[in-house]
Write a structure and sequence with these properties.
It contains two helices and eight strands. The chain is an alpha+beta fold. The mean pLDDT is 84.
């Protein structure tokens, strides 16, 4: 009788686990488009060659001053500009010029995507100084009504390269 109960219990656990795995719905992940305004863009910003920062979220004027010390971009903001909105900067090392193309939130998370597109700008420039690289950037303004600045987590920059190659198979 004990053997029967043990076998029954093992089979019950295995069948229950199989039902849970088979019957589980696939998790749907999608993005929600959000409103934004592009307020600046530029090219040929010199950064350290090993700088891997590709987005920056600027939520206060003090933060903007610290940001400008590290990345001297052409953008004039005052403390009033941060009253009802904040700013996101996207960097691109693969294009001479970029513009913001879309701002999206990954559904039910604190992850965001800032899509930038190549503007087609072509610059003939001398190589950057040793240990430096040229970077293009785009700056967007986001209202606090759209996104709570305190709940923004990671902003991933997704690039569309204008003259990239497409291979057909």
């Amino acid at each position: 009788m004990k053997k029967f109960l043990l076998i029954f219990l093992i089979l019950f656990v295995l069948i229950s686990a199989a039902i849970l795995v088979i019957g589980r719905k696939k998790r749907v992940t999608y993005t929600i488009p959000l409103d934004f305004t592009q307020v600046g863009q530029g090219s040929m910003l010199l950064r350290d060659k090993n700088d891997r920062v590709y987005s920056a979220v600027i939520t206060s004027y003090q933060g903007f001053e610290k940001f400008k010390d590290l990345y001297p971009i052409e953008l004039n903001l005052t403390g009033k500009d941060f009253k009802y909105s904040f700013y996101i900067v996207a960097f691109s090392d693969s294009s001479w010029g970029v513009e913001a193309d879309g701002f999206k939130q990954k559904y039910a998370s604190s992850y965001y995507y800032l899509d930038v597109a190549d503007t087609g700008m072509d610059i003939k420039a001398k190589p950057p100084p040793e240990g430096k690289k040229y970077t293009a950037y785009a700056v967007i303004k986001v209202s606090d009504k759209v996104v709570d600045r305190n709940k923004i987590g990671h902003v991933q920059v997704r690039e569309g390269v204008l003259n990239g190659l497409t291979k057909w198979f």
